[in-house]
Design brief:
By secondary structure, this protein is α+β, with helices and mostly antiparallel strands. The chain has 20 helices and 13 strands. It has a 5-stranded antiparallel β-sheet with strand order 3-2-4-1-5, with helices on one face.
C-alpha cells in the first residue's frame, strides 16, 4: 500500500482518473432504484484522501472543474428559467426562495447546538444536495483552513446520502399524505411553466368548417393552434403547407403536435380524415437536418424565411431527448435536429443554410466559451455589500453561473454564439463536475477521516436528514395548499429546489408524465443561486 500511495501522490493525473473511474463504477450501483450517480466520485475521493495527506489533487483541477460546471449549467438552463418567470413561474420561484431560506434557518438553529460555521455551511449544501453551494463554501474558505479543521466536505458528505433518500421518501409519501394522484393531475400551461415537450403525433385533418381566409401561419395564431402543418392535399395533389399557403374548406392537411393540441386542431378545423397523404418524393421530400451553422444559431426560425426562400416548412425540432413543434419565434440552437419538408431540389440548399455537419458540432467556440467564463470570474470578484456593512462575493461558483444564465438568455452577440451544442453541453458539464468532486474529495479526505475517528457525526447526519425532509414536505404543503399548484408540478419543484436529478426522475416515474420537469426548470437556477449566497452567509455562524 505505501508504494501505491507514493505512486499516486507523485502522479496527480493517475490519481484523478483512478478516482473518477472507480467513482463512476460505484455510482452506477443502484439499491431499490437509487444510486449515487456521479456524486460517488466525491466519496471515492474522500476514501483516497483518507489514506494519506499527500493524496491531494492540485487546486487548479478543482477550480477548473467548478467554473466549467456552473457556467455550462447556467447556459443550458437559461431558456427554461426565463420562460418560467411568467405568471405561475414567479410564484414557484418565490416558493423556492422560501424553501431555501427555511433550510438555512434550520441549519442556523442547529449551529447553535454546536455545529461549527464551515460544517454548518456545507451541511446546508449536503442536506439540499447542491454541489455549487459546496463549491462556494470551499472557495470562500480558500486559504483560511486551520490545523484540525474537519474540511469543508465533512457536512456535505455526511448529509448528502440522507438528502437524496429523504427527498425520495417525501416524494413517495406526499401523494398519500396530501391526497392527490400525480398521474391524473389537472395541469394547464400556466400551472406547468416551462414544461418539456411531450410525444408528438401526426393526424390527417379534413377542413370541413368555414375558416378565415388567411395564411396558415396567421390561421394557427388566430385559432390558437399549437400544431405544425406538413402536407396539403388539394385537387388530387400533395404539396407542402408553407407559412404563406392559404387553406380552404375541403383541403386535407397533416397536423403535427402533442395529442391535446391535435384534438384541438381537429375540433377547430373539421374532422379527422382516413386519407393518408403521400408525397411523390421525386418532387417533394423531407429529412432531419442538424443545425451546425453558427450564423443562424440562436435566431428565430421565422427570420430564416424557409418558406419564402425554399418553399420549405419545419415541422418538428428535436433538442436533446425532447421533440417539439416549432413556431416562428423558436430560436434554433446548435445541435437541434430540424425535420424539414421541401421541394426535393431545395433540400440541399436548406441543408447548407442550417449546416448539417456533425463534425462542426464537435468543435466548441473557444472564444465565446473563454470570454463567457472570464466575465463570470470577474463578476465573482465583485463584493456585494450587506446591511451590516460587511460584504460577500459570488465567487467561482456564483459568478460564472449568473453570467451563464444571462448569456444563455441573450443567445448571441453579433458573431459570438454563447450557447453550446446539446451534446457538448452535457459532456462539459459532466467533465467539470467530475474534476470538481475528485478535487474536493481528495483534498478533504484526510481531515474527513480524522473527524470521523473523533466521533460526534451522528448529530450532523440527523440534522441533515431533518432539514431535507422538513424543507421538502413544507414545500409540498405550501405549493399545493397555498399556491394551489398541481401536486405533480410541486414534486418537480421540490426536486428542483434540491437540484436533484434523481428526485426528478423519481417524480416523473410516479406521475407517469413529464409534468414534474416544468416545476424543476422553474426553480433550478433560482435555488442554485440562492444556495450559493446563503451557504457563504452561514460561514459567519
Amino acid at each position: 500500500m505505501p508504494a501505491m500511495v507514493e505512486m499516486l501522490a507523485a502522479n496527480p493525473l493517475l490519481l484523478l482518473f483512478a478516482v473518477a473511474g472507480i467513482g463512476f463504477v460505484l455510482g452506477r450501483i443502484e439499491i431499490a432504484g437509487v444510486g449515487l450517480g456521479v456524486s460517488a466520485v466525491l466519496f471515492v475521493g474522500l476514501a483516497a484522501g483518507s489514506l494519506d495527506p499527500t493524496l491531494r489533487l492540485p487546486d487548479v483541477v478543482l477550480q477548473f472543474g467548478l467554473v466549467t460546471f456552473v457556467y455550462v449549467v447556467g447556459l443550458s438552463t437559461a431558456s427554461g428559467f426565463f420562460a418560467s418567470m411568467r405568471r405561475r413561474g414567479v410564484q414557484t420561484a418565490l416558493l423556492a426562495l422560501g424553501a431555501v431560506g427555511l433550510g438555512a434557518v434550520l441549519i442556523a438553529a442547529g449551529a447553535r447546538l454546536g455545529v461549527a460555521g464551515p460544517t454548518a455551511a456545507d451541511l446546508f449544501a449536503g442536506a439540499l444536495t447542491n454541489t455549487p453551494a459546496l463549491a462556494a463554501v470551499i472557495d470562500a474558505l480558500a486559504g483560511t483552513a486551520r490545523a484540525g479543521d474537519p474540511g469543508p466536505a465533512l457536512g456535505y458528505a455526511l448529509a448528502y446520502p440522507g438528502g437524496v433518500l429523504g427527498l425520495l421518501a417525501v416524494i413517495a409519501l406526499a401523494p398519500k399524505l396530501l391526497r392527490f394522484d400525480p398521474a391524473h393531475d389537472p395541469v394547464t400551461a400556466d400551472e406547468a411553466p416551462g414544461a418539456a415537450g411531450g410525444k408528438l403525433e401526426l393526424a390527417t385533418v379534413l377542413i370541413s368548417r368555414d375558416i378565415p381566409e388567411m395564411s396558415s401561419r396567421f390561421l394557427r395564431e388566430r385559432l390558437g393552434l399549437a400544431v405544425a402543418f406538413g402536407r396539403l392535399g388539394r385537387d388530387g395533389q400533395t404539396t407542402v403547407v408553407t407559412d404563406e399557403v392559404v387553406l380552404h374548406r375541403g383541403d386535407v392537411v397533416t397536423a403535427i403536435g402533442e395529442p391535446p393540441a391535435i384534438e384541438a386542431a381537429i375540433l377547430a378545423l373539421g374532422e379527422r380524415s382516413p386519407l393518408h397523404l403521400e408525397f411523390d418524393r421525386s418532387v417533394v421530400d423531407f429529412r432531419r437536418i442538424t443545425v451546425s451553422n453558427p450564423r443562424i444559431a440562436e435566431r428565430p426560425l421565422g427570420e430564416l424565411g424557409l418558406d419564402v426562400r425554399f418553399g420549405a416548412q419545419a415541422t418538428r425540432v428535436r433538442r436533446g431527448d425532447v421533440e417539439f413543434v416549432p413556431t416562428p419565434q423558436t430560436h434554433l440552437e446548435l445541435g437541434d435536429a430540424v425535420r424539414v419538408v421541401a421541394p426535393r431540389e431545395q433540400l440541399a440548399a436548406v441543408s447548407r443554410l442550417l449546416g448539417d455537419s456533425h463534425r462542426a458540432l464537435a468543435e466548441i467556440d473557444v472564444i465565446s466559451f473563454s470570454f463567457g467564463i472570464g466575465l463570470g470570474l470577474l463578476l465573482g470578484l465583485v463584493p456585494i455589500p450587506l446591511p451590516d456593512g460587511s460584504s460577500f462575493t459570488l465567487g467561482l461558483a456564483g459568478g460564472p453561473l449568473v453570467v451563464g444564465l444571462a448569456l444563455g438568455r441573450l443567445g448571441r452577440s453579433g458573431p459570438l454564439v454563447w450557447g453550446l451544442p446539446h451534446a457538448a453541453s452535457l459532456t462539459l458539464r459532466q467533465v467539470g463536475l467530475v474534476l470538481f468532486l475528485a478535487g474536493v474529495g481528495t483534498r478533504s479526505g484526510w481531515a474527513f477521516a480524522q473527524a470521523i475517528a473523533g466521533g460526534g457525526i451522528v448529530p450532523i447526519i440527523a440534522l441533515g436528514a431533518a432539514v431535507t425532509c422538513t424543507v421538502a414536505m413544507v414545500t409540498m404543503v405550501v405549493g399545493m395548499r397555498v399556491l394551489h399548484l398541481p401536486g405533480s408540478v410541486v414534486m418537480g419543484v421540490v426536486a428542483g429546489i434540491h437540484t436533484q436529478p434523481a428526485a426528478l426522475a423519481f417524480a416523473i416515474e410516479r406521475s407517469k408524465n413529464e409534468v414534474p420537469s416544468a416545476g424543476y426548470a422553474a426553480v433550478y437556477p433560482v435555488a442554485t443561486v440562492a444556495k450559493i449566497v446563503i451557504a457563504q452567509l452561514l460561514l459567519r455562524l
